[in-house]
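Comment thread on ticket #2218

A.B. wrote:
> Attaching the input chain for the structure job we discussed in standup.
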Amino acid sequence: MSTKILVVDDDPNIRQVISFALKKSGRTPYEATNGKEALQVFNKLNPDLIILDINMPELDGLEVCKEIRKTSNTPILFLSSRDEEIDRIIGLEIGGDDYVTKPFSPRELTARVGVILKRTSDIKFSQEITKLEHGPLTLEIDKHTCLWQGHPIALTATEFSILRIFLQYPQKVFDRDSIMTGAYNININVSDRTIDSHIRHIRNKFQDLGCNNVVETVRGVGYRLGLVG
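C.D. wrote:
> Ran it. Output below, let me know if you need it in another format.
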């Protein structure tokens, strides 16, 4: 069955370019022209991934993401015409999985889509490991479920992959390149700031349940799983 991709942008030319590139890569694009329409199509379509422009009238991409994250962990790849760090960080912190700046290469965009979908597929269908546990922290790999003291925590596909790496090697300190390679499963350019944003977002979600040290910073090196317990 072809992968369903929801393309949300108020520029018809951008939608056309993206849809054409997705079709060439064997995926099925569906389009929405603004944020409100995006939510309507999302609820009907249940897409495998969303390509979401940030700067749109009526309801911008960040608001759409917040609304979707209330009920779903569907991967979201943000688009923006502004290459400002604050936009990138905010997009990732509210639940985005990746970020591409306009103008973009259709080839790079479809490559990033493929990376996210592969990561999501690996999480859903991995048969090698079905559960990872460390103290009160549990990842149920086949269900894409994260539990802290029995309470579920909603993670994006990227956040889940990062936490999975830490649980697989609980004593290891990972530099940012190792985290990027393990989480993205491809040689793709992801900035240190992007990794830091994902880590911060993971921490914030656990802090809401009283866990303040799920990921530790090792200064000058990177990150490792915290001494949870």
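A.B. wrote:
> Thanks. Noting for the ticket: The chain is about 45% helix and 20% strand.
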